[in-house]
Amino acid sequence: MSKTILITGASTGLGAAAARDLATGNTILIHYNRSREAAEGVKADVESAGGNALLFQADVGSESQCARLVSEVMAQTDKLDVLVNNAGGMIERCPLNEGPNWGLIDEIFRVNTYSAIYLTSALLPLLEAGSDPSVINITSIAVRTGAPTASIYAACKAALDSFTRGAARELAPRVRVNAVAPGVIETPFHEKYSTPERVQTFIDATPLKRTGTADQIAHAVRFLIENSFITGETVDVNGGMYMR
Ligand SMILES: NC(=O)c1ccc[n+]([C@@H]2O[C@H](COP(=O)([O-])OP(=O)(O)OC[C@H]3O[C@@H](n4cnc5c(N)ncnc54)[C@H](OP(=O)(O)O)[C@@H]3O)[C@@H](O)[C@H]2O)c1
């Protein structure tokens, strides 16, 4: 492909799988926050698959760190073909009957939503210099189904889903904007936020009776990169847990 691809949150889980899947012949800009060692492992894997890799560190929940990330990326490349806004997480589960926590609501939106909107806008000059440039936002099945004790997380991903369509219209015809909405996928995410019992209830509610793998999400990301007639779409990869 010979593309320059920035993947946020590429140290572990879905972002790392996408970096490895897209490695051959491409330059992968691997962003991470805390997991430096894991990010270095992804960089080594990208290089052994015949790709180029550069590492960037930033807490994307911080405006100033997002700004620093953008300037560091701009110092390394004069074009971007793909931006994958993947960094994110629930931060923590927030049962509504425990009362509101303004700071936590703010953090969940900053990490998952503000960051993706900020980076899409700030990196637009680089994307406009790319070849069939596209943005891919990683949302969630929670957008479709709601998520008890994670309704704020679901809402922030729903905002990102809506942003995907708005940006797709606004940035067409030059830049495509799409999303992937993963179901329950085996990554460190569920080790942080779900008990094994909760994961089992998700599996029970999934027609294919299993969790998905990070590679299956990477496959959907690759599909959206390669199909140049898709924009404003959200691809659901969830074992049938939600059907439109
Ligand atoms: N796994 C699932 O079932 C599932 C389902 C639906 C949606 N998703 C979404 O998929 C995306 C990837 O999650 P995952 O499953 O791959 O989980 P993961 O393994 O926990 O990966 C999360 C990634 O996001 C980065 N990150 C988290 N907070 C950050 C912050 N404040 N600043 C910068 N980077 C930050 C992490 O970086 P460091 O580790 O370097 O700090 C890590 O690279 C997330 O947006 C998540 O909401 C996952």
Quick structural summary:
The chain has 244 residues and is an alpha/beta fold. The protein has helices at residues 13-21, 36-48, 63-76, 102-122, 124-128, 142-145, 151-171, 188-193, 196-204, 214-226; strands at residues 4-7, 27-32, 52-57, 82-85, 134-138, 176-182, 234-237. It has a seven-stranded parallel beta sheet, with helices on both faces.
Strand content: 5-15%
Q: Estimate the mean pLDDT confidence.
A: 98
Q: What string gives the helices and strands in order?
A: EHEHEHEHHEHHEHHHE
Q: Biggest β-sheet, characterized?
A: 7 strands, parallel
Strand order of the largest sheet: 3-2-1-4-5-6-7
User: Would you tell me the structural class of the helices and strands?
Assistant: alpha/beta
CATH class category name = Alpha Beta
At the fourth level of CATH, the homologous superfamily is NAD(P)-binding Rossmann-like Domain
Cα end-to-end separation: 32 Å
Q: What is the count of helical runs? A: 10
**How does the overall form come out from the CA principal axes?**
globular
Name the poorly predicted regions. none
As a whole number of angstroms, the C-alpha radius of gyration is: 17 Å
Count of all domains: 1
Named CATH topology: Rossmann fold
* DSSP, total strands: 7
Q: Give the cofactors and ligands.
A: NADP nicotinamide-adenine-dinucleotide phosphate
- Name of the CATH architecture: 3-Layer(aba) Sandwich
